[in-house]
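QA checklist item 7 of 12: single-chain prediction sanity check.
[x] sequence parsed
[x] length recorded as 224
[x] structure emitted
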Amino acid sequence: MQSFSDFLDTISSEFTPVVKGFDRQDYAAIDLSANNRDLLKLEVASSAAFSVYITEFLKNRGKQAAYGGYNELRTLYNRSELFNNTASNRNIHIGLDIWVPEGTEILAPLPSRIHSFQDNDHFGDYGPTIILEHEVTGRKFFTLYGHLSRQSLENLEIGQELQKGSSFATLGDRQENGDYAPHLHFQIMESLQGKAGDYPGVVQREELDFYLKNCPDPNLLLKI
């Protein structure tokens, strides 16, 4: 059977937008890993300071949106007990982050239906989150959208169908998105392992092999 990663790569041969108003040429790749020395100068516990950092990063490159973070070891999660505790110690990011302004509309990258949603409202968590279910050539999988506005969860219905390219949510600000600079956490999962409205987006090194297989690089689909 074709691997899930190879399958995703065949779904689309061109750029597939998941945020409205940005073309492929508007994006710049950003490194937020532990190797980025610029982050040492930044107060990473401050979402406001991080917003300034992202704005300056894009301004200096003449771009409008930043993306990256898949399979990235990050120290910025040290600020949150959700990740930085002896039972968890999670610091490897397995989604793709897209850094664009609050209020940006989120688009369904494929024909979809609403699988589940909830407000994961712990400090440092996703905040409002929506999971979509997809079926392409008989193969089912899921996509997760984190750090949304609370308004995005209003009037949703489980099973509600969405067309490819339709707008179904907006990005939240730091008061509602888990206290982050505005961005979309986009993640693809072959299996949800029985979860609904939530799925790990930051994992331990000991679990990484499983999660990299279950959650391949989202850019295989988006092709930014």
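[x] summary fact logged: The first helix runs from residue 4 to 11.
[ ] second reviewer sign-off
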